[in-house]
Structure formats: C-alpha cells, structure tokens
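thought: user wants a sequence for this fold. calling inverse folding tool.
action: design(structure=
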C-alpha cells in the first residue's frame, strides 16, 4: 500500500488526509498541537464563560461545494442580510448596504453624499460577478493557463490584473468612503499601497470569487464545525491522525522526523504533503527561506454584555453589526495608514472591520449568555505589519494595538466599548488581542501571515505544467514533497482547495 505523511493538521491537511485515505492510501498526519484544526478552531477564549469563539479565522467563502459534498461535510453556513455599515468619520451618518433592500441602500448612499456611487458600486461588483463563477469553478481542477484565465476575465483582465487596483477603484467610484469599502477587501492580511502594486489585486480577487458570488458566510457552530467535520471525514476514511507530534525534519526522499512525548521518531513514505507555510517547510528541509513572510493585521476578540449604541439615529446595532462594520477605512485613510506603518508607527486611527458572529449564529453562546443578550465581536485591524513587533516588542505592541482598537471603535460609537465588555471568572475584561507574532507563536505562521506568504494568481503564469504537482499548483523544489497548505497556489482562506489539489496530485503520482 502506498504511504503518505502529512505535516500539519489544519483544515487543508485534514482535507488532503480524507481524500487520500478514501482512495486507499495509508495516511499518517502529524500535528504539533494537542488538537486538530490549526487556525480553523472554536475555543473558550474567556475563562468561566460559555462562549465558543472562532479564535483565528471566522468566515467562510472559498470552501467549494464539491469538497463539502465529496467528504460529506455537514456544515451550515448563514448568509448575512447586511453587507456592511461604514460610519462617516466625525459625523452621525453612515453607509448601510442592505442586500435585501436596494431602495434603502440607495437612500443610504445619498445620506453620506455619495448618491451617484450607488449604481457605480453595484456596477463594479456586477463586473466581478461576470467572471467570478467561472474562475471559481477552476480552483478544484488543474491550474488553468494565463490565456484561459484571461478568457474568463475578458475585457476586465487589464484592470483587475495589470493595473494597481487602487487606480481601478478610484476610476469606478467617486466618494472616498465608498472607495474604501471596496478597498478593504484588497488589504485583508496584505500590507501594501493599493496604488503602487498589484498585491492588492490578488487579495481582492480571492475575496470576491468565493462560491462565484463573493459572499462571506457564518459557519454555524463556529469554525470548529468546519475543521471538526473534516477531522471526522479523515478518521472515517481510515487516516491516522496524530496530535502532539512536532515535526523536526523532512528529507527530500520522503523521510519525516518528529518528536512525541519527548521521544524522537522517524517515518518514511512515498510522498510528504506539507500543510505548514513554505518558510517552515524550508526550515524542516534544512534550507533558508527565500524571503520571510509578513502578515499585516491585528485580531481582537471581544465578548460584550450587549451591542453598543450607534451615533446614527434610525440604524439599529443589529443591522450595523449584521454585516461588516468598517471603521476609518476610507481609501485615503488606508493609504495614510500604510504610510504611517512604513514609518514605524501604529496607524492612528487604526483602520479596522468588525464582525458579530453571534448575531448570525447564537449557538456559539451558552443559553444563559444568549438570554442575557451577550454578543461577540471580532475586530480585524489593517495595515499593521509584523515589522512593528521588532520596533515595539510584542508585549508592548499588543497593548498599543489594544488601545488603538478600542479608541478606533469609540470614535464611531455613542458609548465607550469598554463599558460593555463582559468580565471573566477572574473579573478581567473579555478582550483578547492577537498580534502577528502571537499568530506565529501559536500557529507557526511566519510573520503572522494568514496566507502563509504572498498570494499568487489562481492560474499558471510562466511556470511549466509538466508534472502532476505543477499542474495542480502544489509543487516544491523536491519531487516527493508537495505543499498542501495556504502557501500552495490557490491557497489562502478557509477553503480546503490546497488540500484537495495536493491529494489529486499525489494520487496521480502514486499510480
């Protein structure tokens, strides 16, 4: 029987394990932590309170229906009625985009002085929708060529691929706040000036093609429901899943060394699939990474006794927090925040977006918290590169970012957010801050980069497609070692795509 060792038990590693084991391959998956799931976990972040937070990743868009169906993944995803709410800084007005009420949405555009942009905004996303479905259909097959991808994007290729996306956004809509609503999708986890490079173009593309619609849905039960379902699928198929096993070396010929319970072990296999970041893989191979990956965000988890009141009359907190709540994310503010961070400062104000998981899925809270009106908030701050940790020190930066996040929120609310924080069993406020370095330490993500490195286009560019690994976008410099994590082509986000593609390449190679 053919043997495969998978390094890393994140959702991609579990996906690969399930596919391979179902095909009759002997699979051993080694996970450093005490539980499977990696970044796709739900956990009790605040001691003594029955609140299961999606601690790291939190929304699902890129998981293909084909993968869920193939593996019998029974995960319910809740579609949010409201797309976003964006307060106008220094005012009691804001832009509320309601997916179910176009007239109300147009009125909201007009209320912030952007009446003409309502149609332009919709047209921008209609253009994306023209190719999103067709492009998303390719991500679970061999890599399309650039020419094939260009055929899918058609006349939009030059703008969405060749020109910096900041220029395209400025040409598409006129109001700075509306431009920012689009621009944030090009910056999540990416540190860039959107007018200077196409790094943001790739980030935007991955944020708008999911499911062919670009909708970001809430997984019922939290992200742990996704990884838990994949773990069950892998175990049911016969994969051997080992926790507490820290991989210390990978030999290009297929040998894997790991430590478990203080003892050194060694496995040999026909192929090794690595779900860790390419930088981590390089270290395990005894090689130097080409360029250290760098994340650019801070994640703040909060548990509130209730949602905060808004400055804007007539907009309910349940609507404003029912989608993505943007703060200080006009295009000019995002560009200014990038410049501030380049100069070594934490952006002031901190641009961020907030999600309320518990509004869409109350099940993550225990019955008592639900009855009392408690809610969770996840704040994701942008333009905070990992290099700031070197300047501030991680503990100090964590405190600075905590204060910056709270101040940014307070500036657009009608009451201080700290006054609404629940307290844990020790009387401590329920707020958890995760810097890029915290992510690196907890999840072995170099530089806290949530994509494991720079995102790549979901098609082949100049590389040859002459081997299964290259055709499926999972190749490394070593024939017996494949990528199966977010660092593979078409990796990034909670999708399982990299895991499925690595499994497909491996099955071809093992024939």
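)
observation: tool returned 511 residues.
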């Amino acid at each position: 029987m053919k043997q495969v060792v998978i390094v890393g038990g994140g959702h991609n590693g579990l996906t690969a394990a399930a596919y391979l084991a179902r095909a009759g391959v002997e699979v051993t998956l080694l996970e450093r932590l005490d539980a499977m799931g990696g970044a796709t976990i739900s956990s009790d972040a605040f001691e003594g309170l029955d609140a299961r937070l999606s601690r790291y990743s939190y929304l699902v868009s890129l998981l293909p229906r084909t993968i869920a169906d193939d593996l019998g993944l029974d995960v319910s995803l809740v579609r949010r009625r409201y797309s976003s709410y964006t307060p106008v800084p220094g005012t009691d007005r804001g832009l509320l985009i309601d997916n179910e009420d176009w007239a109300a949405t147009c009125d909201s555009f007009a209320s912030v002085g952007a009446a003409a942009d309502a149609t332009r905004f919709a047209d921008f996303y209609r253009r994306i929708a023209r190719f999103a479905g067709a492009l998303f259909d390719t991500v679970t097959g061999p890599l399309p060529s650039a020419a094939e991808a260009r055929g899918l994007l058609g006349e939009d290729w030059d703008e969405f691929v060749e020109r910096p996306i900041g220029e395209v956004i400025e040409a598409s809509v006129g109001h700075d706040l509306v431009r920012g609503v689009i621009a944030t999708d090009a910056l999540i986890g990416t540190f860039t000036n959107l007018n200077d490079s196409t790094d943001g173009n790739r980030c935007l593309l991955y944020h708008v093609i999911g499911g062919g619609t670009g909708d970001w849905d809430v997984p019922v039960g939290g992200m742990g429901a996704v990884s838990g379902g994949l773990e069950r699928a892998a175990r049911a198929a016969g994969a051997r899943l080992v926790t507490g096993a820290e991989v210390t070396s990978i030999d290009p010929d297929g040998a894997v060394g790991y430590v478990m319970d203080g003892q050194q072990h060694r496995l040999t296999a026909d192929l090794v699939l690595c779900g860790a970041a390419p930088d981590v893989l390089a270290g395990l191979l005894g090689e130097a990474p080409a360029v250290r990956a760098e994340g650019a965000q801070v994640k703040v988890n909060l548990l509130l006794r209730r949602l905060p009141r808004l400055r804007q009359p007539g907009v309910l907190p349940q609507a404003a927090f029912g989608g993505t709540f943007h703060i200080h994310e006009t295009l000019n503010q995002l560009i200014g925040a990038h410049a501030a961070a380049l100069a070594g400062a934490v952006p002031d104000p901190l641009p961020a977006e907030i999600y309320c998981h518990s509004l869409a899925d109350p099940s993550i809270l225990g019955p008592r918290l639900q009855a009392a009106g408690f809610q969770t908030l996840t704040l994701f701050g942008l333009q905070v590169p990992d290099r700031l940790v070197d300047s501030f020190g991680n503990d100090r930066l964590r405190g600075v970012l905590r204060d910056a996040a709270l101040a940014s929120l307070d500036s657009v609310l009608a009451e201080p957010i700290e006054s609404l924080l629940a307290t844990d069993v020790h009387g401590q406020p329920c707020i958890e801050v995760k810097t890029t370095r915290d992510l690196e330490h907890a999840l072995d993500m170099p530089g806290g980069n949530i994509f494991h490195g720079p995102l790549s286009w979901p098609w082949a560019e100049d590389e040859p497609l002459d081997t299964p690994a290259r055709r499926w976008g999972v190749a490394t410099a070593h024939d017996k070692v494949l990528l199966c994590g977010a660092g593979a082509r078409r990796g990034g986000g909670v999708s399982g795509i990299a895991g499925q593609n690595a499994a497909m390449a491996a099955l071809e190679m093992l024939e």
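thought: summarizing for user.
answer: Here is the designed sequence. The mean pLDDT is 96.
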